[in-house]
Amino acid sequence: xxxxxxxxxxxxxxxxxxxxxxxxxxxxxxxxxxxxxxxxxxxxxxxxxxxxxxxxxxxxxxxxxxxxxxxxxxxxxxxxxxxxxxxxxxxxxxxxxxxxxxxxxxxxxxxxxxxxxxxxxxxxxxxxxxxxxxxxxxxxxxxxxxxxxx
Length: 150
What we know:
Layout: E1 2-15, E2 18-23, E3 26-32, H1 39-51, E4 55-56, E5 62-64, H2 66-69, E6 72-77, H3 99-117, E7 122-123, E8 130-145
Parallel strand pairs: 3-6, 6-7
Antiparallel strand pairs: 1-2, 1-3, 1-8, 4-5
Helix pairs in contact: 1-3
């Protein structure tokens, strides 16, 4: 699994002119799933995300997690995170999981995030044409790949 995590003061996702998910201060998590991903990847990433110290403490140092601040999470599926641009100018998405597998993994990942966060997470709609709006705070943007645990 690959994720792009953005610290936001607010974010929302709209499908067909309907807002389907919205949050205040917290994290927008874009997630791409590949065939090799399993529950271990989802569990490791979820634990990492809710505990990342990306929010300022009283001294202005990024020393607090989304858990610490009582923040929200919006999770949105994004298969393009597995784009390969090695050859030519048209990205290949061959590493992205097939929709049936990816949908189940996305739902499980979002459920795991909610459990680790201790409250529901907002979600996009898997496979939909989504419009994501956000106000990146900082900006703070983190990339994590569960297959490359640095």
